[in-house]
Amino acid sequence: MRLVFTKGAGKSDTMTVVRDGRADTVIDCPKQRIIPHDMVHYAVESVLHARGFLGRIAGGEDADFRMVAEAESDGVERLVEVFQGDGWSGGTSDAAAMIDLYRVTCDARGCPMLAVDAATIDAVRTRIAELTARWDAVPAGGTLELEFDSDA
What we know:
Layout: E1 2-6, E2 12-18, E3 25-30, H1 37-48, H2 53-58, H3 71-88, H4 95-109, H5 118-136, E4 143-147
Antiparallel strand pairs: 1-2, 1-4, 2-3
Helix pairs in contact: 1-3, 1-5, 3-4
């Protein structure tokens, strides 16, 4: 599956999901001062090889924000939220604090945590930093294409 992020000039960017044998799906990505939300999903899901929103789409589900709850993808979503919050605050939170926040978030939403440790946090942060550098270099109207391994 290919993900084509297009940088908008206004308040949102887009992600086009390209899958063999299916019509392309375009998803609006409101700007959030960091990389798009679904690009954070890419970082988390590709590093952890976990089935989240993108993994479910790669597996054949429609790109719909009303997906049925699923333990692993719910855990991915909570972790994505933790990384977004970290990004909004400069990306320097202590790994232990991020894991604690992830635990609290999962407990509050009633979903199991994925197995994460400081090395996992560092690996996702490294991927986010790489994506940020690439995304920052894209001009308005330009694109960044990513291949998503559907075996994640």
